[in-house]
Amino acid sequence: MDGELGDFLRSRRARIRPEQVGLASHGRRRVPGLRREEVAQLAGVSVDYYIRLEQGRGPHVSDAVLDAVARVLRLDETECAYLRTVARPRRARDHRPAAARVRPGVQLMLDGMDRTPAFVLGRRLEVLAWNVLADAVTGFSRMPRARRNLPHHVFLDPAARDLYPDWAAVAVQTVAHLRLDAGHHPDDPELCARVGELSVKSEEFRRLWADHQVQACVNGVKRVSHPVAGLLTLPYETFAVRSEPEQTMVVYTPEAGSETAERLALLGSWASTRA
Question: N or C: which terminus of the chain carries fewer CB neighbours within 10 A?
Answer without folding.
Answer: C
